[in-house]
Amino acid sequence: MSEDKSTLGNMVDAAKAKINEGADRARAAGHDLASHVGGSTTENAMDKAQAAEDRVKAEVHNREANAEFNEGKSEAKDGDGR
């Protein structure tokens, strides 16, 4: 985030972060499914670990999106980015 970004720039970055969050959650769901249908316990454990990692990434993107949105909203209200 940068104080010199416009409201539109912040909102675009928030939308990108939400898209990335959705992609991470979809990957996590895929890994969760794979962990239940695989034949190898080692592969299943790896899929579970990858799903957990993707959920953490999704949460990071969610927080980025919220921060960008709030910064953009603030910029739209008062124009100083605070």
Low-confidence stretches: none
- Count of strand segments: 0
Q: What is the rounded Rg?
A: 17 Å
Tally of individual helices: 2
Structural class: mainly alpha
Instruction: Sketch the topology as an H/E string, one letter per element.
Output: HH
Could you say which overall geometry the principal axes of the C-alpha atoms support? rod-shaped
Work out the strand percent.
under 5%
Average pLDDT works out at 91
**What is the makeup of the main sheet?**
none
How would you describe what is shown here?
The protein is built from two helices and no strands. It has 82 residues and is mostly helical. The longest helix has 38 residues, at 41-78. The model has no long low-confidence stretch (mean pLDDT 91).
Key descriptive features of the protein:
single chain; mainly alpha
Write a brief structural summary.
The chain is an all-alpha fold.
Write the layout of secondary structure elements.
Blueprint: H1 7-37, H2 41-78
Helix pairs in contact: 1-2
